[in-house]
Amino acid sequence: MKVQEAKAVVVLTTLGESTDADAFARVLVAERLAACVNVLPRMTSLYRWKGAIEEDREQQLVIKTTRDRVPAIEARFHELHPYELPEFVVLGAEASAAYLQWLRESVAT
After folding, report:
1. Do the bridges between strand 8-16 and strand 43-49 make them parallel or antiparallel, or are there none, so unpaired?
2. Contacts of 74 (CB under 8 A, 6+ apart)
3. Neighbour count for residue 67 (Cβ, 10 Å)
4. Among the four given CATH numbers 3.40.50.720, 3.40.50.1780, 3.30.70.120, 1.10.357.10, the one describing domain 4-107
5. Whether the Cβ atoms of residue 97 and residue 22 lie closer than 8 Å to each other
6. From CA 47, how far away is CA 13, in angstroms rounded?
7. pTM of structure
């Protein structure tokens, strides 16, 4: 495993409040794309889209995985995510050795 592959990352995305975020998260974990996905409570999102300011109720997903799984997650988003342009923000993360080991084992294919 390359050093970069072993790095922990957090991927952020949002889903509309009527979307089954638990099912979306379950697919990512079941397919070993993510070790853990937190589905946060519904929130109000304000954003600019196609020249207008929009306001929607959404759910934030916090996806914990490794750097090397990011391309596969992004590809799966194109199949699963209902948005025309889904949020796909990848943040580098520091993790304890034990947590990082669990993360690696959880997404190993």
Report:
1. unpaired
2. 88
3. 17
4. 3.30.70.120
5. no
6. 14
7. 0.92
Q: Find the farthest-apart pair of alpha carbons in the chain and give their distance in angstroms, rounded.
A: 46
Burial (Cβ within 10 Å: 0-12, 13-18, ≥19) of residue 34: buried
The 10s digit of each residue's pLDDT in 86-104 is 999 999 999 999 999 999 9
CA 33 – CA 73 distance, rounded (Å): 6
- H helix or E strand, kind and range, residue 15: strand 8-16
Using the predicted structure, report yes or no on whether residue 2 has a pLDDT greater than 70: no
Q: What is the pLDDT of residues 17-49, one digit of tens each?
A: 999 999 999 999 999 999 999 999 999 999 999
User: Dihedral angle at the C-alpha atoms of 64, 68, 72, 77, nearest 10 degrees?
Assistant: 40
Q: Are 13 and 86 in contact (CB under 8 A)?
A: yes
